[in-house]
Every structure is written in C-alpha cells, then in structure tokens.
Amino acid sequence: IEWVRYTLRVTKVFKGAEKLEFINKNQVHIYTMPDGGACGIKLNPKQHYLLTGHVHDGRFQVGACGWNVEWSQVTVKQRRGLKYMYGKHCEACSIQTCFFGGYGCDSTSP
C-alpha cells in the first residue's frame, strides 16, 4: 500500500509531544491512506487543521476515524478543553469516535 504524505507546519501539540520530539515544527510529514475507503483523509493547502493520530515506525499517521477537522470547525468549548484539560491533566484521556447510538464508544473510558 502506498501512503499519501503531506508536509505541514505544526503550530501546537496538545498531547503526545514526547512522542513527537523528532518533529521539526517548520516541516512535518504526516501519512494517511490514499482514499476514504481505507480511512484516508484529504487536506487542503493553506488551511489550518486539528489532526489526531498516532506515531508508528517513526511516522505520524492520521486517518478518517480520528478527529481531523478544519480548525475553524472546532468550537470554543472544544478549544478550551484541548488547551486546559486534554493533554495537561489526563494521562489516560483519549479522543474516540462515537457513532449514532453510542456505537464505538466504551462507556467506561475516561
């Protein structure tokens, strides 16, 4: 499988900075699958995004199943939560995708 590579500039890391020490904030490579059917995402140039993902084999990988949205779509309440709660006060916290009716959500998760 051929990964799609995007080159971005990171302006803020909310959680996992210790895993991203290898990142040069002026030029970061992220990887995603080539199409939406394989959970790939498409990013537009000159746009600001909130991207979530994981580091695997030294590569930051993102996919459609994570929280990956244009920054303008992140509400003030969500921004406050990211800034003050998500990474600073909760080692076990994670963002997960919940589908209609709660499918995919573990009610025991923090």
The overall average pLDDT, rounded, is: 78
The helix/strand series, from N terminus to C terminus, equals EEEEEEH
Protein structure class: alpha+beta
Main sheet? Answer: 4 strands, mixed
Number of strands: 6
- The quaternary organization reads as single chain
Shape: globular
Low-pLDDT runs: none
Number of helices: 1
Helix proportion of residues, in percent?
A: 10-25%
Strand portion: 15-25%
Strands in their spatial order, largest beta sheet: 1-2-5-4
Rg (CA only): 14 Å
- C-alpha end-to-end distance: 34 Å
List keywords for this structure.
110 residues, alpha+beta, four-stranded mixed sheet, two-stranded antiparallel sheet
Describe the overall structure:
The chain is of the alpha+beta class and 110 residues long. Helices cover 10% and strands 20% of the residues. The chain is built from one helix and six strands; from the N terminus they run ββββββα. It has one helix spanning 76-86, and strands spanning 4-8, 28-32, 49-50, 53-56, 59-62, 69-70. A four-stranded mixed β-sheet has the order 1-2-5-4, with no helix packed on it. The chain has a two-stranded antiparallel ribbon with strand order 3-6. Strand 4 (53-56) and strand 5 (59-62) form a beta hairpin. It is globular. The termini are far apart. The model has no long low-confidence stretch (mean pLDDT 78).
